[in-house]
Amino acid sequence: MDEKQLIIRWGIIGCGDVTERKSGPAYQKVSGFALKAVMRRDAEKAADYARRHGVEKHYADADALINDPEIDAVYIATPPDTHKFYALKVAQAGKPCCIEKPMAPNYDDCVAITEAFDARQLPLFVAYYRRSLPRFLQVKQWIVEGRIGSVRHIHWHLTKVASETDLSGLYNWRTDAAIAPGGYFDDLASHGLDLFVYFFGTVTQAHGISLNQQGLYTAKDAVAATWLHNNGVTGTGSWNFGTLKREDEVSIYGSKGTIKFAVFEEVPLTLITEAGTEELTIPHPENIQLYHVENMQKHLAGILQHPSTGHTGAHTNWIMDNILGTL
């Protein structure tokens, strides 16, 4: 097999903000991958993205990209309500796929997607990239090493100030209940809940209270939850998107210590034990999905198992649906 055949040629459906820096450039930087095509319904914006990022092809029609014989794999970076629609087309075309998070607006759609890819024995990934970031791998290492003893409980508190868009009433798909029933909970809390499953294993029970306190949009804006991991670790979380200031703190409580960190803020990781307090700063890469994309390349090359698959992504949706009371 020559060198050209070893390169997996990717196409992106939905080249919006997330692909500008967080993800798109990673597909160009990772050895063994090449970003060859992008698609956006607005043809001019698709052409502009392709020009600025040095991408060879651009489309305004997703089917044209999916069925392009020179595209080997597809990354779906559209809003969640279209993930199932496009993913089933990618599965039908027989190509590996990565889907942005959350995987879909509901668990049932996630099951339909995973079944389609399983039936064709095709690789399916979900962009829960925190499972691949060194910052969070360090937290997992502390847990595995027993630095805080037996883990008892995890708690996450996340708040956000209502944005100018929220207050203005301008449309935002992230707060449209038809696309994201939990609003910012779907978009943001999904990252942390997925990460906690990576740390402690699948969740067997999840319960919650959710409501709209502000009346600024149709989706929920306040959520409180409890859950149980299959290894006996209990979890609680509170998320509110209309407070005075932004707060983001996770505390993992063990029999011999505590680990504190943030899911989104780049504050130091803190390890507290009887020996004292240790702080460690691990910066993110310029393109935050870089290690996630690298791990996809290694998975497709048969080197390792990617930590974020369709099945793990679907499980995260199952947790969220249970918390929101929609399952």
Layout: helices, strands, pairs:
Blueprint: H1 3-6, E1 8-13, H2 17-20, H3 24-29, E2 33-39, H4 43-53, E3 57-59, H5 62-66, E4 73-76, H6 83-93, E5 97-99, H7 107-119, E6 124-126, H8 134-144, E7 151-159, H9 164-168, H10 184-200, E8 203-211, E9 222-229, E10 234-240, E11 247-254, E12 257-261, E13 269-273, E14 276-280, H11 290-300, H12 310-324
Parallel strand pairs: 1-2, 1-4, 2-3, 4-5, 5-6, 7-10
Antiparallel strand pairs: 7-11, 8-9, 9-10, 11-12, 12-13, 13-14
Helix pairs in contact: 6-7, 7-12, 10-12
Spans where pLDDT lies below 50 across 5 or more residues: 1-5
Strand order of the largest sheet: 8-9-10-7-11-12-13-14
Measured by DSSP, the beta-strand proportion falls in: 25-35%
Helix content: 25-40%
Round the mean pLDDT to the nearest integer and report it. 97
**How many strand elements?**
14
Q: Give me the secondary-structure category.
A: alpha/beta
User: What value does the Rg take, in angstroms?
Assistant: 20 Å
The rough form would be described as globular
String of helices and strands: HEHHEHEHEHEHEHEHHEEEEEEEHH
Largest sheet: 8 strands, mixed
Number of helices: 12
Distance between the termini: 48 Å
Q: What labels describe this entry?
A:
disordered N terminus; 327 residues; single chain; 25% strand; 8-stranded mixed beta sheet; alpha/beta; 6-stranded parallel beta sheet
Structural account:
With 327 residues, this protein is α/β, with parallel strands linked by helices. It has twelve helices and 14 strands. It has helices spanning 3-6, 17-20, 24-29, 43-53, 62-66, 83-93, 107-119, 134-144, 164-168, 184-200, 290-300, 310-324, and strands at residues 8-13, 33-39, 57-59, 73-76, 97-99, 124-126, 151-159, 203-211, 222-229, 234-240, 247-254, 257-261, 269-273, 276-280. The protein has an eight-stranded mixed β-sheet with strand order 8-9-10-7-11-12-13-14, with helices on one face. Strands 3-2-1-4-5-6 form a six-stranded parallel β-sheet, sandwiched between helices. Strand 13 and strand 14 (276-280) form a beta hairpin. Helix 7 (107-119) packs antiparallel against helix 12. The chain is globular, with a radius of gyration of 20 Å. The N and C termini lie far apart (48 Å).
